[in-house]
Amino acid sequence: MGGWTGKVLRVDLTTGVISKESTDKYKPYLGGTGLAYKVLWDEVPPGTDAWDPANRIIFGVGPLTGTGAPLSGRVSVTSLWPMHPESLPATGHMGGHWGPELKYAGYDSLIIQGKAASPVWIYIKDDVVEIRDAGKMWGNGIYRANAEIMNIMGPEAHVAAIGQCGENLVRGSNVMCDRSHSAGGVGSVMGSKNLKAIGIIGTGALKVEASKSAWKDLVHYQHTILGANSGGVVPNTLQSWQPDGYYGGTRWTAAKGLFWGAASPPVETGDCTADDLNSIGLRTFKGYADFGPGVGDKHTVKIQGCHGCPIRCHIATDVPALEQLGVSRYQVNTCNGNSSGSGFTIGITSRSENNITASQYGVALCDDFGWWSDYGLAQADFKWLAQHVLTAEECTAAGIDPVNAGKTPYQYRLTAAEYAKLPWAKFTGSDFVGKMDFVKAVMIQIKDNRMADGTPATWEKMQAGQPATLGAYIAVGAGRLEKLWPELAIQHQENKATPSAINYVKMGHIKHHFTESSDTVQAAALLNMMYNRDPMCHTHTNYTGNGLPLALQNEIFNELFGPFEGGNAIDAELAAPDFLPTPMNKAKAVFAKMCFLYMELHNSLTLCNYTLPGWASPLKSRNYRGERNLEAMMYSAVTGDAKTAQQLEDTGLRILTLFRADTARRMNEKDMRNKHDLMPEYAFHAHSGAGTLDHADWEVAKDMFYEECGWDKTTGLPTQATYDRLGLSDVAAVMAGAGLLP
């Protein structure tokens, strides 16, 4: 079969044994997250901690990775999640070129287990795989590790590495590949295994079963379906060439007279008409979209992308002012990565020169230290803890002596000596360089991760009441910190106080496209309840944010997955004062299910969930219709294993159901509905510009979603019949033995 190499690489760092095994048993799960869920289920027993040597970290790629299929450069890095208080399974995702290189080296995924006696890195060049000493790299950042490994292997090597955050067991730490593509939250698993980096050179090739002409035609066809990053199929602003005058809040931001201003010479993004595939990589002017006119365009060198990606969303900037702060003027990142460091500041005007300088300074520190912000939750918590002044009533509610009213939580919780270690006058002051000094001071405390006495920080020491640095309290993660500091737990649930809307969901993670997804708020809530981290799912927002009129979006969805009675999947703009959506209905339940299934398929095949699905297209000649069968067509052409969209969707449900079973097994919880599938209380209270849940309707939403998946409504667990239908009878037997079968 095409696509797969036929081998999975396994490295045991405890024994030093390197082995290669057949991919065959993993093919029902495709690859990526599906393969990784199978590994965790089979090999890592319940009760295992994320940092236990018995835990695995799986670098998962799929049958489409590296084939040249558009958008196939992703890697799913799956493990037991260090940020989750119960070490439940979750995945970080990274792009770049590392994943395809693993395939070219001959491997369908990489499984790492055990713990090395001292720091090591893994050398992979085709069939040659070695565990090498990393003693000289340990203690240094990701940039240094990349440079040293490329000096050894050659400039064509692709490197995935951790920084000091991962080494020092900061729970929010990244694995970074190609210097700027991050798999958030899993870096400390590598650190716990004394694994610094993985360098790869692959010189092999992959087989595509379809003929060259058929494959070329299919790739061209997919290009015609694609719009811009985040699913936009019409421009952000009205263009003279747009036949129906459709435009909307998309990331299709190219326009006449708008340039990559820091390129030499500057590059005009231009009209980028829908039928001009040669300009598809110019449509998503992310620098302009993120940093604003006169700033983003001025400092953008180009928009980079991952392997096989025609869309491009990775912003390469040139900000000369960074040199005065001691870092390179050239930085690369996108989306939330551009706020990871600058989020520790206040009083900087958005879309200004200072804003882009602060952003890219934070990028330089975070990408080198290897820090992950829990998708911005760490900075939101920080600002509230640093600025919110506790009232006597809040103190009483949190079990704090009311005599401490008038203090911020940090002033109350930190020792006076620890509080004084940070230059707070620079945080609140107006001097920009001083603000950057403060950012650096906080970031250094995070990456060092120390108790107040200078010893390595641990959760056990914090639970025992030993004082820690502010950075260590950030490093431990929100899910644990709220157990220590009840005032933070209350704010996470109520989200009332200013400054900072925290938008926490549960169990240590922030929302991801949840209440702001007001047109599909029930589906967005289901996505945010399911996973053991923020869901990192863009399927719903990529479709509803495509820029087409609401009526047309619902018409297309009904054609693809309906017909439906009793209401549409997507709501109109929600009205004040309640901001309540229309009641839950069949179309919304199917929409939610398809969002789940296609995210799992994208993360297993692997394809980019930041742009897909291709349910709509930018072409008037197609009446803006996309292609439901796109993923199935690509899979079938590459592997020769012909599948329809519905058959591939069943594979997605198999993957999701295995994930659900493993989460329940590790929690030893039969009542997943009420113990795992939780929503914060603020989601049920009206907020301007955000969708609001109704308690009764939310329970209906869970009922309907469970039913769509073949899961029991009372417990939220998969049924025996569903396990059997999906080829998971062996999983059902284990769940029955554990008393977890409804």
Order of strands, widest sheet:
2-1-6-3-4-5
Oligomer state of the chains in this structure? single chain
Distance between the termini: 38 Å
The main sheet comes to:
6 strands, mixed
Structural class: alpha+beta
CATH class of the largest domain: Mainly Alpha
> How many structural domains in the coordinates?
4
Strand content: 5-15%
Percent helix: 25-40%
State the CATH topology of the largest domain: Aldehyde Ferredoxin Oxidoreductase Protein, subunit A, domain 3
Q: Could you explain how this protein is built, in words?
A:
The protein is of the alpha+beta class and 742 residues long. The protein folds into four domains: 195 residues, Aldehyde ferredoxin oxidoreductase, N-terminal domain (Aldehyde Ferredoxin Oxidoreductase,  A, domain 1, 4-Layer Sandwich); 136 residues, no CATH class; 130 residues, no CATH class; 220 residues, Orthogonal Bundle (Aldehyde Ferredoxin Oxidoreductase Protein, subunit A, domain 3). It contains 29 helices and 19 strands. The strands form five sheets. It has a six-stranded mixed beta sheet. A six-stranded mixed beta sheet has the order 8-7-12-9-10-11, with helices on both faces. A hairpin with a 5-residue loop joins strand 1 and strand 2. The chain is globular.
